[in-house]
UniProtKB/TrEMBL annotation, chains A, B, C, D, E, F:
GO terms for molecular function: hydrolase activity; nucleic acid binding. GO terms for biological process: rRNA 3'-end processing. Residues 27-87 form the OB domain. Gene3D superfamilies: Hypothetical protein af1432 (1.10.3210.10), Nucleic acid-binding proteins (2.40.50.140). Keywords: Hydrolase. The keyword Hydrolase applies. It comes from the Bacteria. The keyword Hydrolase applies. It comes from Formimonas warabiya. This is CMP-binding protein. Residues 159-279 form the HD domain.
Amino acid sequence: MLINLLKPGDAVLGFFLLKSMECKTSSNNKKYLDLTLADKTGEINGKLWDCTEEDETGFHEHILVKVKGLIGEWQNRLQLKIEKIRPAGPQDEVSMEDFIPTAPESSEQMYGVVLRYVEEIKNKDIQKIVSRIIAEKKDRLLFYPAAKQNHHAVKAGLLYHIKTMLVVAEKLSTVYPWINRDLLYGGIILHDMGKIDEMAAGEIGLIVDYTVEGQLLGHIVQGIKEIDQIAKEEGVDEEVSLLLQHMLLSHHYEPEFGSPKRPMIPEAELLHYIDMIDARMFDMKNALENTTQGQFSERVWVLHNRKLYKTSFHPPEGGDFEHAERRG
Amino acid sequence: MLINLLKPGDAVLGFFLLKSMECKTSSNNKKYLDLTLADKTGEINGKLWDCTEEDETGFHEHILVKVKGLIGEWQNRLQLKIEKIRPAGPQDEVSMEDFIPTAPESSEQMYGVVLRYVEEIKNKDIQKIVSRIIAEKKDRLLFYPAAKQNHHAVKAGLLYHIKTMLVVAEKLSTVYPWINRDLLYGGIILHDMGKIDEMAAGEIGLIVDYTVEGQLLGHIVQGIKEIDQIAKEEGVDEEVSLLLQHMLLSHHYEPEFGSPKRPMIPEAELLHYIDMIDARMFDMKNALENTTQGQFSERVWVLHNRKLYKTSFHPPEGGDFEHAERRG
Amino acid sequence: MLINLLKPGDAVLGFFLLKSMECKTSSNNKKYLDLTLADKTGEINGKLWDCTEEDETGFHEHILVKVKGLIGEWQNRLQLKIEKIRPAGPQDEVSMEDFIPTAPESSEQMYGVVLRYVEEIKNKDIQKIVSRIIAEKKDRLLFYPAAKQNHHAVKAGLLYHIKTMLVVAEKLSTVYPWINRDLLYGGIILHDMGKIDEMAAGEIGLIVDYTVEGQLLGHIVQGIKEIDQIAKEEGVDEEVSLLLQHMLLSHHYEPEFGSPKRPMIPEAELLHYIDMIDARMFDMKNALENTTQGQFSERVWVLHNRKLYKTSFHPPEGGDFEHAERRG
Amino acid sequence: MLINLLKPGDAVLGFFLLKSMECKTSSNNKKYLDLTLADKTGEINGKLWDCTEEDETGFHEHILVKVKGLIGEWQNRLQLKIEKIRPAGPQDEVSMEDFIPTAPESSEQMYGVVLRYVEEIKNKDIQKIVSRIIAEKKDRLLFYPAAKQNHHAVKAGLLYHIKTMLVVAEKLSTVYPWINRDLLYGGIILHDMGKIDEMAAGEIGLIVDYTVEGQLLGHIVQGIKEIDQIAKEEGVDEEVSLLLQHMLLSHHYEPEFGSPKRPMIPEAELLHYIDMIDARMFDMKNALENTTQGQFSERVWVLHNRKLYKTSFHPPEGGDFEHAERRG
Amino acid sequence: MLINLLKPGDAVLGFFLLKSMECKTSSNNKKYLDLTLADKTGEINGKLWDCTEEDETGFHEHILVKVKGLIGEWQNRLQLKIEKIRPAGPQDEVSMEDFIPTAPESSEQMYGVVLRYVEEIKNKDIQKIVSRIIAEKKDRLLFYPAAKQNHHAVKAGLLYHIKTMLVVAEKLSTVYPWINRDLLYGGIILHDMGKIDEMAAGEIGLIVDYTVEGQLLGHIVQGIKEIDQIAKEEGVDEEVSLLLQHMLLSHHYEPEFGSPKRPMIPEAELLHYIDMIDARMFDMKNALENTTQGQFSERVWVLHNRKLYKTSFHPPEGGDFEHAERRG
Amino acid sequence: MLINLLKPGDAVLGFFLLKSMECKTSSNNKKYLDLTLADKTGEINGKLWDCTEEDETGFHEHILVKVKGLIGEWQNRLQLKIEKIRPAGPQDEVSMEDFIPTAPESSEQMYGVVLRYVEEIKNKDIQKIVSRIIAEKKDRLLFYPAAKQNHHAVKAGLLYHIKTMLVVAEKLSTVYPWINRDLLYGGIILHDMGKIDEMAAGEIGLIVDYTVEGQLLGHIVQGIKEIDQIAKEEGVDEEVSLLLQHMLLSHHYEPEFGSPKRPMIPEAELLHYIDMIDARMFDMKNALENTTQGQFSERVWVLHNRKLYKTSFHPPEGGDFEHAERRG
């Protein structure tokens, strides 16, 4: 009974994550609960009509609930008309983590992969800075998403993004061997680290809000300051520190996307493109998973509001688009 | 005596490619020859003052010449004051190809690599289209540059660009295995093929001019029409043909760069980014080869007029930036 | 009882085109039908409250219905509260074509006009291409609109647009007699022909959707390919074919509107401006027909969201703005 | 010996308009005269080397001179090396007007055509305003160009532009008969009238400079103020005056081209497009007259820096592109 | 019981301005009144469910009403569920002006301040123009807002804006004493005067609509014409009149904001920046008054959709942010 | 014999700053020196023809020289043909500082004014940060210009800019008393402080070049890092430090001018506008000082390439535009 498989007329009986909840008054002046229910595959709006006072107070966000109801349609979107709803309890033997969209690999495993890349960095100054930052932020890296809504907005999405980019970087540096791999690895690991301070996330891996500092400065400047300070504390070479800061500063590439300087070293240029590729592949895979072969997807906001087309002959042979590398 | 090593005061005696030539009248009303001389490493302006009628008629573009002269400076640019100049002859035992900037691998070898990728394409329709086009254009592919002035504007630059992109694509498709490799390989091989009809190049691998069709339609539309026609002749699946055409149409990504449609399949998205990466790495490597460590390069027009910085600790260790993968 | 004359409080009894229909659930959880009803003069939203199962299944889109109801207002827009509704039958003696917004001249007559212009083309190559394409597409030309929502989105709107543009072209070519009339006529007839393959329209002359090819390539590229192929089949002069293709490619004028090349021949420049004039005059006439003298219209989306002003002294004398040239 | 026919090596002996003149010092520190010579077909740069004091003082701008010299080339442009030069005198029987690029019809005749259109205006208020303004400005209208450098920058070019636009308007209003012809004619006649106060022109029909008011306000605002004042003096209907002012204000269409408001009546919309068409046809005809069939022109600055293509089969039949409608 | 202090659950009993009113039909097909109620501190939406015919006809806009009801929430916005409502009468002893957002100083007093600045103008021509215009427009100046929705959209907001700008100008001209104070004062007083003719406002100081002339020409052109005419009537120096007109024309600075010319005198440059500062300070103060210390405001549309941050240590010491200079 | 008073034909005998110097070869192949000579009022190009080897080696940049020569014109610009030139020596009793464009007040005096503003800051945290930074940078503040070419590119121009902005801020804060003066003063003093590390200037107050860090990060990020570090060292309140950093980050206002965030507090908004006003007044005063009354200036690059108009009645009365507040 996965959300992305529901269709009008389905009867529903199962568990969901109660992602958000609001008590509202209908236009005929009756109270009802307006809910967002989620599982790993998506979200659906639910209505509990004519709700009682206990209904109002018996639930709160970010718990699991058991729901019985019927799927209808309202303004072209599915809606779950709830008949019964109760909080899940221990007897239900359901686990939160089965309901949260999560990176397809385990956090500890991905963290280990990143550590191995750090070990491969030959420049000791870069290694010092990177090692210290990922150690200090390890706790949060293990569950932080990479964004509130865009690409990699899943639990441990930031770590998954970093890890995948490192793999890409390793491969590209065999094609362009004159590239400084140390800078590239360092820049990739650090490029979005400021997001951990820019946004506040709960442990279930969803961004709750932006921090005050995040709004006033943004993760690029926050990340630069962190590198600067650690570099000074560690006494590393000034040029090295400067170049890593420049990579952060320029990785959005265009002023209107937050980078006042464009890349001035090839490693910064590559960082930008690897970041773009990994973000786009994540979002496109997502969009296509919910699309029928030979059809166009809905418009996807983060992809310049494009529709995507899913070829009718996809995947090439025996491959498995839906499950390949997903939730490993 | 390579051009990129010359400095004011140097006496010059050696062979050059006479790239362009014009007879002019100075402001004190004397005739002189204004020449562009080139070798593999760059170009220099030359002046033959007070030239005679034989001087005017004794040379033409695209031959090798032997020159004696002195390096001076004029408005911050080097200039060669020519004392003696004559066409090179058989006795000089110099070969044109030693003077033309050329891709770092042999054309036949690169063509062979591309063929191997074509063999790996499992979709027979894609393979048919691609095979036929690279066979038909083989003659010109072996020497065509990829542009008049931008990236890969060297002999066989187009082939080198395609071949490198294919290597990158193969590597990326191991990171994103759900991608349709057949489409990606096909799109890469075909994406700039229209340039062969858009521009006219001499066999020494320099673009002479744009064709009438090239100016009125551009290589994207030219390439699309070619795929369309061959697909019809070969009777291939319509969707396959359409998707390859879409990849051509969208690979510049933005309308103002010539793509009226943005990519609607992930393979088209990847094609765009692989194209960008390979072009940028080529241009940046070029710019940095002529830059001192710890210094900024000149502004580079094709890189949004940026200066590039060459790190003082480049390359990491024992690597060889200057010669790695250069002129094979 | 024309739709554009309805006002709140009116009782309605008559026939309408059922343009679209959806069964919805209200916020107090009852089913109702949400309908779009249309006649030649416009559209109105209708609600059938508390609908039964027969109501749900007894209707479908694109039929004529008889409706009894009352006009109300909802969020500043008129709404028809339906009391009774039934499909029209033969006994009603109403005809679909009386309810569809249609070009003001008969299709066959307009097609005849276009044919006469084709005969005036002296260049045999242009004539061959144009003749064949309008012959092959005649069936659809007779009812296709020129757009889904913008200008000339009426039955046979594309043909009406072409025909009017030809008349304008003929007149302008007497002012600028050095213009090549053959190219201009040819370009006009072909300029939007790709739309017939870009969009799918039902025979009642309304666009149902974009085709897959239409979305991946767009009507400009589709039209170019068609000319290219037919030109090759007919063995026409290459330059002629190329110029017609260039006219298609450049007729949107700006890259961001879909033209990667700007016009490079005066006939292409004229084609663009004639296209603009005819589209704008159509849209402005429409907007002003529903506006009171001395007042501004609503904002019109397709006219850069402008309001139009209807002068209080319009038309000059005894002219008849409302009916001039309307529905012939 | 027309300027547009000269080529390197030609010996020159003939009369020219001395359009501008400057005494300069060469880099070897000798004085020379730097001249711009013109006839109806174009301009050429001339040098009088080693000039004497009499040379310096014996000439001034805007006279005719007789010149003997030789055509050379300097930085890809033709240059006339002057051997002898003297002012033309009565005995030479040459007339200034044979040397100035001029509209192809006589001013008085064009003025008469405009008057006839004014008579056709049925709205007496519009007629009053227009009549008075063209009467008051008649003297200057007879020789003013429409611009300093762009389209219609020839003697009486403004009048020629107005007259041609009126002819186009008349023809278009038969295709769109619901258009208010009075407003359209009025708007066309007045649309650029402010240019007469924005720029100062000598009687030979060349703009000398912008006026202070022209620079601080621009011809659009200047024209609006003139209409406003005359309308008040003549006591015409306020709406009429307002609409004419709006047509002036909006006729450049885009804010960045000087129109803070977009057209809000169809007559203003048409005015804009008729203005564009006439300007573009003028500039394109000019550019193509100097281009070989089957070739591209130079880049033309006022046409977005485009090259134009002259078809190899132009004109259609027996037409005469070069001379059609040129210089009456 | 000020509107900006209301929260869900509050019982309401008091007087409000009935700003707008509409009779609607709910989705369960019952009539209700949809009202906007206002006081000096803000606006709230109100609903009178199941309204009778007397309810429909017993009220009209822009009167005071007494209301009893309950505050609820609907889609994250407060909503007043009305139980009783009646028009206020004389016995209620409430005064309209206590309910309208108004400039913080008395109109007569502000008008007096402006007059004193006019007296300080030493250039008699500028003084003549300014004196006459503010005298002629005095009636409306005393209550006109400066905008429909943006900055200073309060009763007498235009006068308050002018007066504050004059104070700023006086202070800046002591820092830049070479500035021509006369022009600056004149430009400030006149810069938005055309708004009085561009928009129609009721005496309670709210813009009702744009005038026809306002929409066709805009306040900048309207203001220029007024200066031009008065200057001619008063026989003032032409340059003076021209410079004031130029200041109006250029004070929006960018073409896309309505200024076809950028400032060409320093006084026009200053006028623009003083205008910006005063508008922004007004809007920001407003936004922050409703924000908690240490928090961000809602997004503010007129401030490029920014959120503002209210510092936790604001104001510095003993200052009184909330009431400083507010409603004097 | 000030440079801005020279005209063609003048004989020159006097001292100048030798700002830059280059040895070149003329087109007739002779050596000459190409010099830029400057005094406080401007710059002029000079040529020493047929220079000897001693000429080449006898001078270097940034010394004073005595020159005899004649003013000519070359391509509409003045040029000084040098007859004699020698370095100035002690016997000449000329002082470097008389030849360098310098702020109109003494550095020590301006520094004192800034200190007094620092004392007025009541927030001890802001005071601590500001005090320490201006103390640490005092040496360079006393002579640094604010830019390489734009506004305040004079000796001690940065200090003059800060000081003037503080005066403006003080005055504005009496008009908008709810503004936090401490933040505003702090933000002004710090806003461009990063420029001292972004650019390298010699003690004569001219920028020599950009530093590596300046190019890779820019003065905004450099300044933020400095505040961040000092704030941590001084243990100041985090919000205070953050707000000052935000003011730096946002003071260019638009992403394309280097500010990834727009101002979110009114003090940051004011900082931006005060910065703009002071820069523009400086540049406009400069441009007008060299312009005749009643005329337009040359186009000024830093003012969007505008021409400025100098009124014919400037200054109002007895004021002294040329010397007011200039060079104290």
